[in-house]
Amino acid sequence: MKGHSFAISALHESYANGVRVEDVIKESLARIEAYADKAVWISRVPEETVLERARALDALSPEKKARLPLFGLPFAIKDNIDLAGLPTTAACPAFAYEPAENAVVVARLMAAGAIPMGKTNLDQFATGLVGTRSPHGAPRSVFNSDYVSGGSSSGSAVSVAAGLVTFALGTDTAGSGRVPAAFNNIVGLKPSRGLLSTRGVVPACRSLDCVSIFALSAEEATTIFNQAACFDVRDAYSRARMPSDPIVPGESFTFAVPRASDLSFFGDGEAERLFSEAIERLESLGGRARRIDFAPFKEVAALLYEGPWVAERMAAVGRFIAEHPKETDPVVAEIILAGANKKAVEAFESFYRLEELRRVVSTLMADIDVLVVPSAPTIYRVDELAKEPVKLNSRLGTYTNFMNLLDMSGIAVPAGIGANGLPFGVTFAGPAFGEARLVELARRFGTALNLAPGAPALNQKIDDASSIEVVVVGAHMSGLPLNHELTSRGAIFLERTKTQSCYRFYALAGGPPFRPGLVRVDEGGGAIEVEIWRMPRVQFGGFMAGIPSPLGIGTLEIAGGRQVKGFICEPSGLAGAEDITALGGWRAYMAQKAKAAKAG
Is 454 domain-assigned? Predict the structure, then answer.
């Protein structure tokens, strides 16, 4: 299974051809272990437990296997959703509890044959759109580790985009299932409120919360949704599904977009360009664009955090936060505890205004099939968020915060890759119970775009004749700052391994960027951690051209005796370098450097 896609269609084909579930789950475990960004997961199901579940599925008769729509699919669960056997923490260790049973949505997916691999990281108490408000670290965009993955369902989105699992569960109250989808080039389905039970989910705003789905395509998100949806009589906010008429393939449709004066991209020219291209693409599919006044949507969006609904977050976890200030992210605490200042009079005034705005929006959308907006206006680096955590987070919710207050359904889909190498996405939104219509439009849009989902080259198959293996030893490794120089050229991660014990390893002088140097020696060498990537040959020349002196590409000896092209350093470049051979690799050196800096 190494290198194979975890897409539902690909796995179903593999199983039909005799591949065992146990082999797929072993591959998922290996990918999770090898993935460099360790902030993706908070806890994982024990290896033997997931393998036992896999073997139990393998032992079923063909007839029983055929009755399981999600047979053998590995999936991830945001850690504010209960999975029996693992603690639910909401990214706050002091809050952790041991659930007695699975959340309803998890139970339904497992009953359909899916296998949970573990719990993923999130903005603490699902409060944020950035993915940086967690004591477990900040998962990064699979395109460039300098940038946020989006939140609050950060780990779930990355786990799918990186090909670690087939699909993942998130939650979406203010955009947490759409923004991370956009920042990682995958699909994020936010169903109508109540169609996926929230029993077994730590509430954020209980009256607005939705369980969301991350997948590689709109069709796959629908497959998951169809198995997860149910009316749950024990969930006070649960609703039964209603009939929904899809847009018939080939027929014309009308879509609304904000007026040019209402659009904000905060200086991101690539996001603005890609949104314009998305509108043109929809028009080429038979859509008629109608520019609408976006002011009512913006006013609704402002109610979510500036109005009384923030008090719902206070009702959910405010008492715990007030009693555990040291265990709570300070930005999260500030947002939630502000709810204590809201008054009943304000609440009723806002309820009245919301109903007025709903009527206005209903009139605007009366003869429109779908609303189209950017999933997020731009994307920010992690260091930028650290400087202005509230302001920049609010910007990311520009086109998301209104949706649950207006009782809308939505699906976020990839819409292109900018010249900066970063993904951009758009969201299709409509009235409650409109999933079928949105998914069909998303399917047509995705077909026209023809962009591989997830991390670059996630689903590409590169054969030996048209590619070359490359060994990287420093910042080009997965999850590190220069990894995008590989992924943007279509390179595929193969394995993490070590060199033979015939190299000395150095931290070269200068920086940033900080660079390592690998030098072959006749004696006194060590085995150094490396990664092997497979790159299209047509991209290799351009990659080599960007390698600065004293580094170059030579032939390295890898554990097991293989010889592979990879980074080497000219001895002349070692002036002032620090010998770090004893640390065994660049990650260990950078960790030591960060620890020393923190210690002062």
Answer: no
DSSP SS3 for 164: coil
Residue 372 backbone dihedrals phi, psi, to 5 degrees: -120, 125
78 is catalytic: yes
CATH code, domain carrying 585: 3.10.490.10
Which band of pLDDT confidence, cut at 50, 70 and 90, is reported for residue 456? Answer: low
Q: Using the predicted structure, report yes or no on whether residue 514 has a pLDDT greater than 90.
A: no
- Domain ranges, residue 530: 464-599
Task: Round to whole Å and give the CA distance between 183 and 120.
Answer: 17
Q: 535 and 443: one domain?
A: no
Instruction: Tell me how far apart the alpha carbons of residues 14 and 7 are, in angstroms, rounded to a whole number.
Output: 11
Q: pLDDT digit string (tens) for 174-191?
A: 999 999 999 999 999 999
Distance CA 526, CA 40 (A): 31
429 and 545 assigned to the same domain = no
CA terminus-to-terminus distance, the chain: 46
Residue ending a domain, choose from 423, 449, 475: 449
Provide the 3-class DSSP secondary structure of residue 246: coil
Q: Which two tokens stand for residue 4?
A: 């194979």
Q: Do 468 and 425 sit in the same domain of this protein? A: no
Q: How far apart are CA 140 and CA 186, in angstroms?
A: 14
Nearest partner of 129 among 153, 145, 146, judged by Cα:
153
261 belongs to the catalytic site: no
Please give the Cα distance from 586 to 506 (Å, whole number). 9
- Chain-centre distance for alpha carbon 5: 17
Residue 176 is a catalytic residue:
yes
- Shared domain for 537 and 424, answered yes or no, is no
**CA dihedral of 91, 92, 97, 99, whole degrees rounded to 10:** -20
pLDDT at 2: 58
Which ranges constitute the DSSP H helices of 100-196? 104-111, 154-161, 179-183
357 and 497 co-located in one domain: no
As a whole number of angstroms, the distance between CA 259 and CA 291 comes to 5
Question: Is residue 3 in some structural domain?
Answer: no
Burial string for 349-367 (b: 16+ CB within 10 Å, else e) reads ebeeebeebeebbeebbee
Residue 152, preceding peptide bond in cis (omega within 30° of 0): yes
Task: Determine, yes or no, domain membership for 456.
Answer: no
**Active-site residue identified among 134, 149, 152, 153:** 152
The reply to whether 432 falls in a domain is yes
Calpha distance 287→290 (Å, rounded): 10
Both 497 and 412 in one domain: the answer is no
Task: With residue 332 as reference, give the H or E element that holds it.
Answer: helix 330-337
Which entry of 176, 212, 409, 467 is annotated as an active-site residue?
Answer: 176
Q: Which of 28, 78, 156, 488 is catalytic?
A: 78
Q: State how far the Cα of 130 lies from the Cα of 381, in Å rounded to an integer.
A: 10
Tell me the per-residue pLDDT of 303-323, one tens digit each, with 9 for 90 and over.
Answer: 999 999 999 999 999 999 999
